[in-house]
Q: What sequence folds into this?
C-alpha cells in the first residue's frame, strides 16, 4: 500500500474543521491485525477499534504549514507495550473519538512494523522537502495528452510506456480525455518515509 491522506480528512480540511496550526493533532501506533484501514470511508478515530490503538502521542509540537507542507517536531512514545504496530495514524484530537477526524496514515517507514518492548519508540518525520506530508498539485491532463501525442508520433514507444507508468504512479491517467469546459482538480498525495527508532 502506501502512505496517504484519509479522503474524509481532506474533506475536513476543506470544510474548515481541521486547522493544522491551532488544533490538537496527535499520532497513534496501530495494530493492523485488528485495524484494516479504509482510506475512502474511515473518518473518525472511533473507526479504529480501541484495541488497535497501541500507543498515542501527546499533541504535536512546533507545527508548520509552509507552502502546503505539514510538519511538526518528532514524536516519542514512552514505555510502549502491546502488539506489533504496522501503521501510524494522524488525527485531530477533539477529546472524543467519535468526533476526532482522521488525517493521515503511514504504512511505509524505516523499521516499520515495530514490536514494542516496554521501551520508547521515536518517530522522526522526513527531514527532506515533504516533511510529514505535502498537499501537491498534479499534472494537467491537457498537457499530458499533448506530450504523449508528441512521443507517440516520434515512435518512442519505450519512453512513452515509462512515462505512462510514472504518471499513473502519481495519480494521473495519461490517456484521460476530459470534456471541454470542465475543471480538472488534482488529487493531493502524501510523500513521506518517517523513521522509527526502537
A:
Amino acid at each position: 500500500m502506501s502512505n496517504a491522506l484519509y479522503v474524509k480528512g481532506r474533506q475536513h480540511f476543506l470544510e474548515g474543521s481541521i486547522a493544522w496550526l491551532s488544533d490538537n493533532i496527535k499520532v497513534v501506533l496501530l495494530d493492523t491485525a485488528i485495524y484494516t484501514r479504509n482510506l475512502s470511508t474511515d473518518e473518525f478515530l472511533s473507526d479504529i477499534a480501541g484495541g488497535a490503538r497501541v500507543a498515542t502521542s501527546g499533541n504535536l509540537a512546533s507545527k508548520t504549514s509552509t507552502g502546503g507542507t505539514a510538519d511538526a517536531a518528532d514524536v516519542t512514545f514512552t514505555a510502549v507495550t502491546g502488539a506489533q504496530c504496522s501503521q501510524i495514524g494522524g488525527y485531530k484530537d477533539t477529546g472524543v473519538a467519535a468526533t476526532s477526524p482522521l488525517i493521515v496514515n503511514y504504512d511505509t517507514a524505516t523499521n516499520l512494523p515495530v514490536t514494542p518492548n516496554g521501551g520508547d519508540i521515536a518517530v522522526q518525520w522526513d527531514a527532506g522537502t515533504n516533511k510529514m506530508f505535502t498537499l501537491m498539485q498534479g499534472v494537467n491532463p491537457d498537457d499530458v495528452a499533448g506530450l504523449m501525442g508528441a512521443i507517440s508520433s516520434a515512435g518512442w514507444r519505450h519512453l512513452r510506456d515509462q512515462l505512462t507508468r510514472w504518471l499513473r504512479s502519481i495519480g494521473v491517467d495519461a490517456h484521460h480525455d476530459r470534456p471541454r469546459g470542465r475543471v480538472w482538480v488534482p488529487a493531493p498525495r502524501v510523500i513521506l518515509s518517517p523513521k522509527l527508532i526502537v
Notes: The first helix runs from residue 7 to 15. Residues 169 and 191 are 12 Å apart (CA to CA).
